Amino acid sequence: MKIVSTEEMRALDHRTIEEFGVPGEELMDRAGFHIAEQVDRLAACWFDSSCTIQCLAGRGNNGGDALVAARYLRDRKYNVEVCLAGNVSDLRGDALQHWRRLSELDVPFYEWATLADWEGAQQSFPPGDILVDGLLGTGTAGPPRGPIAGGIAYINACLDRVRVVAIDAPSGLDPDSGAVPGAAVQADITVALGLPKRGLVQPSAAAYVGHLTVADIGFPREYIAELTGTPGVEVIHRTDLKPFFPRRDRHAHKGTYGHVLILGGSRAYPGAAALSVQGALRAGAGLVTAAVPASVVPIVAGLAGPEAIVRGQPETTDGSLAATAWDGWSEHASAFGALVVGPGLTPHADSLCLVERVLQDSRCPVVLDADALRVLVGHTDWLRASGTPLICTPHPGEFAALTNCSVEAVQSDRVDAARTAAREWGVWVVLKGCSTVVATPDGRAHINLTGNPGMATGGTGDVLAGVIGALLAQGQTPLNAARAGVYVHGAAGDLATAGCPEIGLIASDVVGHLGFAFQSLCLR
Judging by DSSP bridges, how do beta strands 390-392 and 428-431 pair with one another? Predict the structure, then answer.
């Protein structure tokens, strides 16, 4: 999915209305409907039907979207209030038409036209359970002023008590650059309309955007295809991935969907290998074998579950895989559809030898994770020399060590950092974290929108490595395995937090929701 500028978005909107013949009032109605859908899902997870929803509307089209959302939410029997940052007499065009429709319903409506009005409301007017931010659209620039600034302050003053859904972009955030020239709304969810704007995926915007989702409001696909967008950078979206998950063959058997070999685990981290096995199994691999130190076989087998095949291997004195662990597998490597190397491995000297041998001998795709990456610091030239497709899945700390720079430098421009490394190493890079980046050897980048801060806990990366390995083993290309892997992994984390605070999320919860997360990609 393309990432566009506000200018491109305005042109697309204008063309859809003028050439394709969709009235602006209808586009606004579609936008408001999708906002109401998102609010409805949020309310179902966290509140009961008696919750109050406040729609905060500006005087432009963004405010019109909020008015439409209010109407749809009232139709669903929610307690809805509308707070206008201005007077009704300020409304024009499509927004005015939708206000007239809303005014026929029993929806409390407040006109707070000055900064003083909002300051007074902040002191005496109780906020709703969910606030819908429709104060500013994507066509404004500079720091917010007057009643808009008051509305932003009103929202941010009660963040510890409410959930916030922003329409298209959080008010006050520059949708092209991601900069915040003044105050900006700190949203829990931002619903981008049609296509995501460039500023929404910038690292500087993350604290304001929250979870970014995209609503399809019916722009013609042929018009979207003609947009330039951000060269070489796209957003991962389920509509792009669904074609790669066709209906499964009714005559399939376990050999149809590949065999994944996972090399990892140690006396210190037996759970890492087990979580990777579980991730691979839940992502559809026909068979999953874990090659782990002999001393931890009972632990890994118990944690991974009865579906896993666990084989004991030679180990070092401290309980990590010995370099000779590859001896029994190298000549049979062609039997596997993918290898996952690293979960729980430990940065032992033997680990470096083991990784080197895998890179030299393997001819099936390999996922390098965790300690398999840590031991490659100073040896990244081995990656390009390998004769097999490689997917590297570092977190920012591991990536910084591999590229000999600071974590701060990596995080300041994650997309450029991942693209540069992928080109240099000749591999697919999955730079994990907020808005995980999948970068390709030819310099393209794909940004993932799923996932949440609750996934910043031990073991979730091991699950991801297993998921990607399983998709590779089923015949997905490295690009599609990486894109679908991070998308589904993040979606599982999001499902796990439905009705459960992020603070309570653990890696096993992600595993438990993987099957449900695949529903967005698989019909059956």
Answer: parallel
